[in-house]
Amino acid sequence: MRHLFITPEQFLQPHITLSGPDAHYLSQVLRLRLGDNLRVTDGNGWAKDTTVIEIGKREIVLNPNDSVELTPEYDVRITVAQALGKGDKFEQVLQHGTEVGISQFVPIATERTIVKVDPSSQKSKRERYSLILKSAAEQSGRMCVPDILDAMGYPSLIQSSSEYDLCLLLHPQKHSLSFV
Description:
This protein is α/β, with parallel strands linked by helices. The protein is 28% helix and 29% strand. The chain contains 5 helices and 11 strands; from the N terminus they run E-H-E-H-E-E-E-E-H-E-H-E-E-H-E-E. The chain has helices at 8-11, 20-29, 89-99, 122-140, 154-159, and strands at 3-5, 16-19, 37-41, 46-55, 59-69, 79-83, 104-109, 147-148, 152-153, 168-169, 178-179. The strands form 3 sheets. It has a 5-stranded mixed sheet. Strands 6, 7, 8 and 9 form a 4-stranded parallel sheet that branches. The radius of gyration is 19 Å and the shape is elongated.
């Protein structure tokens, strides 16, 4: 069954109306028809199985059936700090990391990173990354969408390492793990 994230406010409505990119995706890409089923989730552990009852030019209306409590995600939360790469490399890390269960991503700008973080474009980049995370979470049936933090430098990352129970630093020239 297809899986879609909606806002907690939409989740509580007697009929769920979807518009914008979600409605376009469901009607034009997935080609949902009247009577088709779809699972929507609020991102907080609850889902509803719904039936498509109306398809308009710009919106789709769903009739909620029963609420379902989803299986919780892993007790272990994993954060991946990844240097920004050229092209879509970082986006691939977001997509595949989400599919395997990563809980949080931290973009890192290092001195050798070719991609430079422009503060004026940080908001739009973060919005793009959030869409990728949402899409990958829906595709893989995740209960919630992973978080993404603002890009930071390597020194800031090391300073924030005390927030985590265990930190592993992987280095291509080392043959063992470094614990921070």
